[in-house]
Amino acid sequence: MKVQLIRNATMVVEYAGKKMLVDPMFSKKGALARGPMPAKDWNWKRNPNNELPLPVAEIIKDIDFMVLTHLHFDHWDKAAADALPKNIKIFVQDENDKKTITKSGFTNLEILTENSTFGDIKLSRTKAQHGKGFILNLAGQVAGIVLRHSSEKTLYIAADTVWYEEVEKTIAKFKPEVIVVNGGDNRFIIGDQLVMSKEDIYKTHQAAPKADIVVVHMEGVYHNTLSRKELRQFVDQKSIGENIIIPEDGETVSL
Length: 255
Ligand SMILES: [Zn+2]
Fold this sequence. Notes:
By secondary structure, this protein is α/β, with parallel strands linked by helices. It has a single domain (2-27, 34-254), classed as 4-Layer Sandwich (Metallo-beta-lactamase, Chain A). Helix content is 22%, strand content 24%. It has a seven-stranded mixed beta sheet, with helices on one face. Strands 7-8-9-10-11-12-13 form a seven-stranded mixed beta sheet. Strand 5, helix 3 and strand 6 (109-111) form a beta-alpha-beta unit. The longest helix is centred in the middle third of the chain and has 10 residues, at 165-174. The model has no long low-confidence stretch (mean pLDDT 94). The structure holds zinc ion.
Protein backbone atom coordinates (compact mmCIF):
# COMPACT_ATOMS: atom_id res chain seq x y z
CA MET A 1 0.00 0.00 0.00
CA LYS A 2 0.93 3.62 -0.36
CA VAL A 3 -0.23 6.25 2.09
CA GLN A 4 0.11 9.81 0.93
CA LEU A 5 -0.53 12.54 3.47
CA ILE A 6 -1.98 15.56 1.74
CA ARG A 7 -2.55 17.89 4.73
CA ASN A 8 -4.08 17.52 8.19
CA ALA A 9 -6.27 14.35 7.99
CA THR A 10 -6.54 14.36 4.19
CA MET A 11 -4.86 11.30 2.71
CA VAL A 12 -4.78 9.36 -0.51
CA VAL A 13 -4.33 5.64 0.13
CA GLU A 14 -3.51 3.20 -2.65
CA TYR A 15 -4.68 -0.20 -1.47
CA ALA A 16 -5.17 -3.42 -3.47
CA GLY A 17 -5.13 -1.48 -6.71
CA LYS A 18 -7.72 1.07 -5.61
CA LYS A 19 -7.30 4.70 -4.61
CA MET A 20 -9.12 5.94 -1.53
CA LEU A 21 -9.42 9.58 -0.50
CA VAL A 22 -9.89 10.19 3.22
CA ASP A 23 -11.31 13.36 4.82
CA PRO A 24 -10.66 15.95 2.12
CA MET A 25 -10.18 19.56 3.27
CA PHE A 26 -9.12 21.53 0.23
CA SER A 27 -9.46 25.15 1.41
CA LYS A 28 -6.64 27.57 0.82
CA LYS A 29 -4.51 28.69 3.77
CA GLY A 30 -6.60 30.84 6.12
CA ALA A 31 -9.76 30.51 4.00
CA LEU A 32 -11.95 28.77 6.59
CA ALA A 33 -13.88 30.49 9.37
CA ARG A 34 -12.35 30.52 12.82
CA GLY A 35 -12.88 27.49 15.02
CA PRO A 36 -15.28 27.71 17.98
CA MET A 37 -12.71 29.13 20.42
CA PRO A 38 -9.02 29.95 20.76
CA ALA A 39 -6.41 27.24 21.04
CA LYS A 40 -4.64 26.32 24.27
CA ASP A 41 -2.02 29.04 23.64
CA TRP A 42 -4.70 31.69 22.76
CA ASN A 43 -3.79 31.38 19.09
CA TRP A 44 -7.02 31.88 17.11
CA LYS A 45 -5.88 32.34 13.55
CA ARG A 46 -7.89 31.17 10.58
CA ASN A 47 -7.62 27.62 9.24
CA PRO A 48 -5.91 25.85 7.62
CA ASN A 49 -2.35 26.75 8.62
CA ASN A 50 -0.76 25.82 5.29
CA GLU A 51 -1.49 25.62 1.58
CA LEU A 52 -2.14 22.25 -0.05
CA PRO A 53 1.11 20.66 -1.23
CA LEU A 54 -0.44 19.69 -4.60
CA PRO A 55 -3.13 21.06 -6.92
CA VAL A 56 -6.61 19.69 -6.11
CA ALA A 57 -6.96 18.20 -9.62
CA GLU A 58 -3.85 16.13 -9.00
CA ILE A 59 -5.05 14.94 -5.57
CA ILE A 60 -8.44 13.72 -6.81
CA LYS A 61 -7.19 12.18 -10.06
CA ASP A 62 -8.24 8.52 -10.38
CA ILE A 63 -9.83 8.34 -6.92
CA ASP A 64 -12.04 5.23 -6.71
CA PHE A 65 -13.81 5.94 -3.43
CA MET A 66 -13.86 8.15 -0.37
CA VAL A 67 -14.22 7.80 3.36
CA LEU A 68 -15.49 10.64 5.57
CA THR A 69 -14.75 9.79 9.19
CA HIS A 70 -16.90 12.75 10.33
CA LEU A 71 -17.74 16.19 9.03
CA HIS A 72 -15.73 18.64 11.15
CA PHE A 73 -14.35 21.57 9.17
CA ASP A 74 -10.83 20.11 9.09
CA HIS A 75 -12.10 16.85 7.49
CA TRP A 76 -14.65 18.03 4.93
CA ASP A 77 -15.13 21.49 3.48
CA LYS A 78 -16.91 23.30 0.70
CA ALA A 79 -13.77 23.40 -1.43
CA ALA A 80 -13.73 19.58 -1.38
CA ALA A 81 -17.47 19.33 -2.06
CA ASP A 82 -17.07 21.66 -5.05
CA ALA A 83 -14.07 19.79 -6.46
CA LEU A 84 -15.29 16.20 -6.27
CA PRO A 85 -17.53 14.47 -8.82
CA LYS A 86 -21.03 14.18 -7.40
CA ASN A 87 -21.27 10.46 -8.23
CA ILE A 88 -18.11 9.43 -6.39
CA LYS A 89 -18.61 6.59 -3.91
CA ILE A 90 -18.48 7.92 -0.36
CA PHE A 91 -18.59 5.93 2.87
CA VAL A 92 -19.98 7.97 5.76
CA GLN A 93 -20.40 7.14 9.44
CA ASP A 94 -24.15 7.53 9.90
CA GLU A 95 -27.53 8.63 8.60
CA ASN A 96 -26.97 12.23 9.76
CA ASP A 97 -23.76 12.62 7.79
CA LYS A 98 -25.41 10.92 4.82
CA LYS A 99 -28.18 13.53 4.87
CA THR A 100 -25.69 16.39 5.07
CA ILE A 101 -23.60 15.09 2.18
CA THR A 102 -26.71 14.38 0.11
CA LYS A 103 -27.67 18.06 0.47
CA SER A 104 -24.36 18.94 -1.23
CA GLY A 105 -25.52 16.93 -4.24
CA PHE A 106 -23.64 13.67 -3.75
CA THR A 107 -25.57 10.62 -4.89
CA ASN A 108 -23.48 7.52 -4.16
CA LEU A 109 -23.36 7.25 -0.38
CA GLU A 110 -23.10 4.26 1.89
CA ILE A 111 -23.02 4.04 5.66
CA LEU A 112 -19.88 2.26 6.82
CA THR A 113 -20.55 -0.88 8.87
CA GLU A 114 -18.38 -3.58 10.39
CA ASN A 115 -18.86 -5.59 7.19
CA SER A 116 -18.69 -3.14 4.30
CA THR A 117 -16.81 -3.84 1.08
CA PHE A 118 -15.46 -1.95 -1.88
CA GLY A 119 -14.83 -4.51 -4.60
CA ASP A 120 -12.78 -7.19 -2.86
CA ILE A 121 -11.49 -4.87 -0.14
CA LYS A 122 -13.07 -5.48 3.26
CA LEU A 123 -13.90 -2.32 5.18
CA SER A 124 -14.79 -2.36 8.86
CA ARG A 125 -16.02 0.61 10.81
CA THR A 126 -14.26 1.04 14.15
CA LYS A 127 -15.09 3.07 17.22
CA ALA A 128 -13.40 6.35 18.01
CA GLN A 129 -13.54 8.81 20.89
CA HIS A 130 -12.96 12.39 19.76
CA GLY A 131 -11.62 13.81 23.01
CA LYS A 132 -11.69 13.50 26.76
CA GLY A 133 -13.95 15.06 29.36
CA PHE A 134 -16.74 17.50 28.54
CA ILE A 135 -15.16 18.47 25.21
CA LEU A 136 -16.10 15.00 23.94
CA ASN A 137 -19.79 15.94 24.02
CA LEU A 138 -19.10 18.95 21.84
CA ALA A 139 -16.90 16.98 19.42
CA GLY A 140 -19.51 14.31 18.58
CA GLN A 141 -19.24 10.96 16.81
CA VAL A 142 -16.39 9.78 14.58
CA ALA A 143 -15.77 6.53 12.68
CA GLY A 144 -12.41 4.85 12.25
CA ILE A 145 -11.88 2.20 9.59
CA VAL A 146 -9.95 -1.04 9.04
CA LEU A 147 -9.07 -2.15 5.49
CA ARG A 148 -8.26 -5.77 4.67
CA HIS A 149 -7.30 -7.57 1.47
CA SER A 150 -5.47 -10.83 0.78
CA SER A 151 -2.69 -9.02 -1.11
CA GLU A 152 -2.18 -6.24 1.43
CA LYS A 153 -1.23 -5.66 5.03
CA THR A 154 -4.14 -4.82 7.31
CA LEU A 155 -4.53 -1.06 7.65
CA TYR A 156 -6.25 0.63 10.59
CA ILE A 157 -7.10 4.31 10.23
CA ALA A 158 -8.02 5.35 13.76
CA ALA A 159 -9.31 8.87 12.76
CA ASP A 160 -9.98 11.63 15.30
CA THR A 161 -9.67 9.65 18.51
CA VAL A 162 -7.70 9.67 21.71
CA TRP A 163 -6.19 6.46 23.05
CA TYR A 164 -8.94 4.52 24.86
CA GLU A 165 -10.12 0.94 25.31
CA GLU A 166 -11.83 0.67 21.91
CA VAL A 167 -8.60 1.54 20.08
CA GLU A 168 -6.90 -1.17 22.13
CA LYS A 169 -9.70 -3.65 21.29
CA THR A 170 -9.52 -2.82 17.58
CA ILE A 171 -5.77 -3.50 17.57
CA ALA A 172 -6.29 -6.80 19.42
CA LYS A 173 -9.08 -7.87 17.04
CA PHE A 174 -7.61 -6.95 13.65
CA LYS A 175 -3.87 -7.04 14.40
CA PRO A 176 -3.15 -4.24 11.92
CA GLU A 177 0.37 -4.07 10.50
CA VAL A 178 -0.11 -0.43 9.60
CA ILE A 179 -1.91 2.08 11.83
CA VAL A 180 -2.64 5.69 10.92
CA VAL A 181 -3.33 7.90 13.92
CA ASN A 182 -4.34 11.53 14.14
CA GLY A 183 -1.76 13.23 16.33
CA GLY A 184 -1.37 16.93 16.90
CA ASP A 185 -2.80 16.83 20.43
CA ASN A 186 -5.37 19.47 19.45
CA ARG A 187 -6.60 21.53 22.37
CA PHE A 188 -8.78 24.55 22.78
CA ILE A 189 -8.29 27.10 25.53
CA ILE A 190 -10.71 25.12 27.69
CA GLY A 191 -11.13 21.36 27.81
CA ASP A 192 -8.86 18.40 27.37
CA GLN A 193 -7.20 16.91 24.27
CA LEU A 194 -9.27 16.14 21.13
CA VAL A 195 -6.99 13.70 19.31
CA MET A 196 -3.89 11.70 20.19
CA SER A 197 -1.09 13.17 22.28
CA LYS A 198 2.47 11.87 22.15
CA GLU A 199 1.72 9.65 25.16
CA ASP A 200 -1.30 8.22 23.30
CA ILE A 201 0.90 7.45 20.30
CA TYR A 202 3.31 5.68 22.64
CA LYS A 203 0.45 3.59 24.04
CA THR A 204 -0.65 2.72 20.50
CA HIS A 205 2.86 1.50 19.79
CA GLN A 206 2.92 -0.57 22.98
CA ALA A 207 -0.32 -2.28 21.92
CA ALA A 208 1.03 -2.98 18.42
CA PRO A 209 4.83 -3.04 18.79
CA LYS A 210 5.46 -4.50 15.32
CA ALA A 211 3.12 -2.17 13.45
CA ASP A 212 4.21 0.83 11.45
CA ILE A 213 2.43 3.83 12.91
CA VAL A 214 1.88 6.75 10.56
CA VAL A 215 1.05 9.98 12.37
CA VAL A 216 -0.99 12.57 10.47
CA HIS A 217 -3.26 15.49 11.48
CA MET A 218 -0.24 17.55 12.53
CA GLU A 219 0.42 21.26 12.09
CA GLY A 220 -2.63 21.62 9.80
CA VAL A 221 -4.97 23.68 11.98
CA TYR A 222 -4.45 26.35 14.62
CA HIS A 223 -5.29 24.24 17.67
CA ASN A 224 -2.62 21.59 17.05
CA THR A 225 -0.31 21.72 20.07
CA LEU A 226 2.13 18.91 19.22
CA SER A 227 4.59 19.59 16.39
CA ARG A 228 6.24 16.99 14.18
CA LYS A 229 9.62 17.97 15.61
CA GLU A 230 8.49 17.50 19.22
CA LEU A 231 6.91 14.13 18.40
CA ARG A 232 10.07 12.98 16.59
CA GLN A 233 12.20 13.91 19.62
CA PHE A 234 9.78 12.10 21.94
CA VAL A 235 9.67 8.85 19.96
CA ASP A 236 13.44 8.86 19.51
CA GLN A 237 13.89 9.32 23.27
CA LYS A 238 11.55 6.36 23.82
CA SER A 239 13.58 4.34 21.26
CA ILE A 240 10.47 3.64 19.19
CA GLY A 241 11.39 6.02 16.37
CA GLU A 242 11.82 3.22 13.83
CA ASN A 243 8.14 2.31 14.07
CA ILE A 244 6.80 5.85 13.93
CA ILE A 245 6.46 7.55 10.57
CA ILE A 246 5.69 11.28 10.55
CA PRO A 247 5.16 12.30 6.92
CA GLU A 248 5.37 15.85 5.67
CA ASP A 249 2.45 17.29 3.72
CA GLY A 250 2.47 15.71 0.26
CA GLU A 251 4.82 12.87 1.27
CA THR A 252 4.03 9.31 0.18
CA VAL A 253 4.95 6.34 2.38
CA SER A 254 5.13 2.82 0.87
CA LEU A 255 4.24 0.11 3.38
ZN1 LIG B 1 -9.68 16.72 13.12
